Amino acid sequence: MQIDSQGVLQGARYLPSPNCDERPEGCAIELLVIHNISLPPNEFGGSGVIELFTNCLEPAAHPYYQAICGLRVSTHFFIRRDGEILQFVPCCKRAWHAGASQWRGHPCCNDFSIGIELEGSNLLPFRNTQYSALTALTLALKQAYPIKDILGHSAIAAGRKTDPGPFFDWGRYFADLRK
To answer: What is the pTM of this model?
Structure first.
């Protein structure tokens, strides 16, 4: 895997999200933030996540969507249960994934981070294919950017977020990165 000069992962399916903007001048990409998401909640394989990140979510499609259809959020990458990687925002731009957040005393983690969403929930383990894709993506990102840390959304938005959740195997992920 390789990230090109525009911040796009070669070989990933690219679905541009309007929910992004320019990073602050001189702001290096130093943090990877791991999330989980499923739409409708705890259902996998549908188009809900894509529709959310591209502002095409139809409120009548599911009762849960009525509460979130006005959100303007995005991520850089989304890894499906089968390991497919989708990209919504080029790495050189700021995706709107972290919200109110802080890392090492610096607020607004969207400024200096890359968001990676795993299709999942806090209720189920992630799949081997997802760990493989996440590891390969992480190594490509670390080669392209001066990544200093990798954290879950819960670590930068404590008390507000719980993802990637109790079933994300941090030990396995970090061991896979060292192989």
So the answer is: 0.97
